[in-house]
């Protein structure tokens, strides 16, 4: 299993609340299915972080790109493989 850190940078804060519940429901579903190691918002309101656990980057990217925040342009994605110690 590999880990991938998805930095979700806030792009359209005016739309954040509109898609927040859909985003949270999406992540809860993936968490329940075992695809998420950790997740949470940045305290300064600039976005959030999701650490996906998948077999490869393509799978992590495919999952991340289904997030309602990304689909609706609320946030942008910066994905990196993460070496968990």
TrEMBL record:
It comes from the Bacteria. Residues 14-83 form the YCII-related domain. InterPro entries: Dimeric_a/b-barrel, YCII. Belongs to the YciI family. This is YCII-related domain-containing protein. It comes from Terribacillus saccharophilus.
């Amino acid at each position: 299993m590999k880990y991938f850190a998805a930095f979700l940078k806030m792009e359209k804060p005016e739309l954040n609340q509109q898609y927040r519940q859909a985003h949270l429901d999406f992540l809860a579903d993936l968490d329940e299915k075992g695809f998420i190691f950790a997740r949470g918002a940045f305290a300064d309101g600039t976005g959030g972080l999701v650490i996906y656990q998948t077999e490869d980057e393509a799978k992590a990217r495919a999952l991340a790109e289904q997030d309602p925040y990304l689909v609706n342009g609320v946030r942008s994605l910066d994905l990196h493989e993460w070496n968990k110690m």
